[in-house]
Structures are given as structure tokens and as C-alpha cells.
Amino acid sequence: MYICLCNGISDKTIRQAVRKHQPQSFQQLRKFVPVGTQCGKCVRAAREIMQDELSQI
Ligand code: FES
Fold it and tell me: Would the ipTM clear 0.85, i.e. be above it?
């Protein structure tokens, strides 16, 4: 499912990036995946996915 329509980023892409890089913050995640860089509507959902994935590592 697409989370960030502006940049065509799926939940799967976010989860894979979180697993690989284990970001300490959302800003850090953005260095690897350009999520929320345009309209910003996806930020909340993307942040939740990041937290969910981090809690499973
Ligand atoms: Fe992600 Fe617009 S949907 S920046």
C-alpha cells in the first residue's frame, strides 16, 4: 500500500528501510527514504509505521 503518494513510497519500503538502517528519528529515516518531503500528509502514517517496525526489531 502506498503511504506517500507524492514520492510513491509504500509501507513495505518504509519497513525495509527501518529494518536496514534502524533510524533513531523520523529525520534520520528521511535520509534513506524521501517520505513526507512534499505535501507532508503522509508524515503521521509513516511515523507510525516506523515506530511499529522498530518495536519489532
Ligand atoms: Fe508524502 Fe505528499 S504524500 S509528501
Answer: yes
Q: What is the CATH number of the domain that holds 34?
A: 1.10.10.1100
The range of the structural domain enclosing residue 11 comes to 2-55
What is the 56 CA–ligand 1 centroid distance (Å)? 25
**Ligand 1 pocket test: which of 9, 38, 47 has the largest number of ligand atoms within 8 Å of its C-beta?**
38
What does the pLDDT look like over 14-51, one tens digit per residue? 999 999 999 999 999 999 999 999 999 999 999 999 99
Task: Work out the angle between the directed axes of helices 11-21 and 43-55 (0-180°, nearest 10).
Answer: 50
Ligand 1 surroundings by CB, under 6 angstroms: 4-7, 36-42
